[in-house]
Specification:
single chain; 367 residues; CBS-domain; 5-stranded mixed beta sheet; 56% helix; 15% strand; binds zinc ion
Length: 367
Amino acid sequence: MWRNGGIRVARIGGIAVDIHLSFALVIAWGAWQGWARYGSVEGAAFGILAVLLLFGCVLLHELGHGLQARALGLAVHRITLLPIGGLAELESSPSYYRHELFIALAGPVVNLGLALLLGVIAYLIQPFSLASWPDYLLFLAPQSGRTLLLYTFWVNALLFFSNMLPAFPMDGGRVMRAALAILTDYETGTRLTAWLGRLVAVGIILWVGHGLLSGSNSPNPVLAIAAPLVWAGAQHEEVYVRRRRALVRLEVGSVYRAATDSVAPWEALTPRLAARLERAGGTLPVVVGGRVVGLASIDDVQRALRSRQQRTVAHIMRTQFPVVKPQETLWVALQEMSTYQLAALPVMHGQEFYGIVSLDDIRRSWS
Ligand SMILES: [Zn+2]
């Protein structure tokens, strides 16, 4: 089954597992690395095997998150494996800090368990030095079963430590935020974790810089790209909580546009209708006999006009929409809009229609 460039490969414990198509490129990269290193077809196969093992460990990590979330009563849509890692998509974000803590920890804990298990097995077979990690992660060691074992051990150790960095968007950032939120509150937890994340970003830059200058056993410069990602993760989470704080304090009733116009389902789609929608802020209710039966948006009307088909409002109106009450918060309205992928919602109390609240109305109140 195809979905967002992904292909469904399995269903594990009721959770769908999709693999992104660009994954084929990573397989090819593994084959090329193995071939370049060992100079044989078996070397290429070895490289592919190594890539598959890596993504197997990423999958187990994501299953850790997914199964823990499900055990806590949250629905898990699917797990998508991307070339940059995995993604477990939850239906909603956990509403208890303790739950967020457990869900965020569950992924890295899987890698820690695997690393301990494989490390002990490998050590019992033949003792190894912890300083030998580049040999196994960079395919410098001979092509053997032992190399694969130690490679998988190091992959899990690396997945554990990199994911547990106390910085957004890593699991460690969510663990840190949840732990601090239990001690203080969500906002303070987020702010402190964001600052910790910025320190981590600076630390990465210093570490990579030092490695480059000293030239000895230098950390891979590729790691430097993690620094801006971590910095951006901190900004993103801070903006998110700042917006949330602003929006939970404002009611829909204070920003919505009162109803002055509406359309009927049988009205033709014309440039004049588009102009009316523009004046109304982009969205108008579709009303029949005093009841709101749909929402007409300027984007949908203009798209229909461009396709030059004779159509009416009934063809383009959205009929699946939630309504918000005037006393509900803008945060609730924003959540509903994102769930239903709408740019505006009708404001109603019982059967009484008040008007429309749009994404633009909400944006104006957080800027
Ligand atoms: Zn994770």
